[in-house]
Each structure stands twice: as structure tokens, then as C-alpha cells.
Amino acid sequence: VFSSSGRTPRPESYSEDVATAEHGKKLGREPSEVLHELRSGAETGWDFSTRWLQRAASDAGSSDLATINASQVVPVDLNCILLRLEKRLAAFARHLGDKDRAAALEAAAERRSAAVDRLLWSDDLGSYRDLRLDTGKAAVLPSLSDFAAPLWAGLTGRRVEALLASLRGSGLLQAGGAATTTLNSGEQWDAPNAWAPLQLMLIEGLETLSKTMGSEAPGSAELAEELASRWLRNCYEAWHKHGAMFEKYDAFHPGEGGGGGEYHPQTGFGWSNGVALV
């Protein structure tokens, strides 16, 4: 999980954090608790998303930022990133002749893979899903992390057909690429926004799946190509219309930048440029 050791406002969002912590008092939360969770949420890289809010724990939950509980979420993407790193480091160690370290890293990857399958896979949903420690249950809202991260980490196996079917029916795949979640909360890591790194993770995962599993993953190569085309169209139309590449895009309206969050939408933009070039 992500859990910051700090319980003070973030320097880059000091006034916003003070206001959110003060609002949290009305919800029965201590300011230091809210500040700790805001810092933890920022550490996730998804600052902010309903993934970390009460809304993801219950259909009746609130999307109020003061309900943030990021340290009580076991994220699919964090564990998939660590899994892929363990596999890569094991391969490096073996290439360098360090058999003991390679074996230890391979064992760690096997343990993590088994734990992710046991704790984060849902047979009912046909997908991976964040685990909420505050409820002991899977998150109620889907996010792109549920699909992109396991595919990118090669964590599919016998569940590939169910995962692909769930992805297609998730509501995440839109005209301008894959939306971050299915809920428009006003936070930037939610619908309607689509982010370049997540598109790359999903598309690369689907391409690798097609190469490694072939006929056992029907349609994965075609889906990867279609999503790449949708994303490039979104980027091109936005550049043609606005003369800029955006930090994030609107998955539902190709050619428009995304919004929400704590600051004005940024243009430039490093990772959008990089993913378009890839």
C-alpha cells in the first residue's frame, strides 16, 4: 500500500490541504488523519481519484476528497509494477551470473503473483480490483488500473478471456482512448480523463498478450491497434484544434484536453509526446 509518514499539508498544495482537513472535521475526521491520507494519495501518482475515496468502498459512499483513505487500499497497479520489477531484476541478476539473487527475486515474484491472484482477483467481476482494507472487500468502481497493470505485468494466464471480456464491457473504452475510471468526480484521475502512461501500459500489455498467448487471447492484437488509433486521433485532433499537446485528454470527446483536479490543465507535454511517438 501507499502510506506517507507525513501528517502535514503538502507544500505544493498547502492552502488546499488545510481547507480539506478543516472540512474533514465535519465528517468526524481528525485533520492529521486527512493530511496523512492526502499525502498518501499523492504518493500513488493518481492525485486524486475516487479509487482512494469513500465512494470506491461503497455504492453509497461519498466522492468528497475529505473522505480519502488511500493508505487503506491495496492497489492493483502498485503490486503489478513491483511484480514486473522483480521479474526484470531477476533476469538481470541471472544474466550477470548472480544465481542466488536471481533465485530470491524469482521467488519474490512468484509469491507476489500468487498473492495478487488470491487477494485482488474477483471471479464475480471477471477482473482484478483494488482491495479495500477498510471494508475487507473489493473496490466497487472499476479503474483502468484493474486491466492495464495486470496485462502489462503479464499477470493473466488462464483468466485472460474473462479479463478481456470484462475490459470490453467495463465502460472504460471510449472514442478517445481508455478513460481512467467510469465516474466523473471532478478529480483528475477519474472520468472523463485519459492519461498517456495508462494508454501505453494497456496497449503494450495487449500486444504482449497477443504475442505470448496467440489464439488463447482472441482479439487482443486488434484491440491494441484500435486503442492506439483512438489515442493518436485524440492527440492529433487536439493539436490541430488547439495547437498543443495536453497533459491529459478527454476520452469521450477526441480533440479536447482533460480537466479537474487542483490546477489548470497543462500543455507541453512530456509523456503525451513520448507515448504518441512510441
From TrEMBL:
Keywords: Glycosidase, Hydrolase. It catalyses: alpha,alpha-trehalose + H2O = alpha-D-glucose + beta-D-glucose. Residues 1-25 are annotated as: Disordered. One of its GO terms (biological process) is trehalose catabolic process. It is an enzyme of class 3 (hydrolase). The keyword Hydrolase applies. GO terms for molecular function: alpha,alpha-trehalase activity. Pfam families: Trehalase. Its EC number is 3.2.1.28. Belongs to the glycosyl hydrolase 37 family. PANTHER family: TREHALASE (PTHR23403). This is Trehalase. The lineage of its organism: Eukaryota, Sar, Alveolata, Dinophyceae, Suessiales.
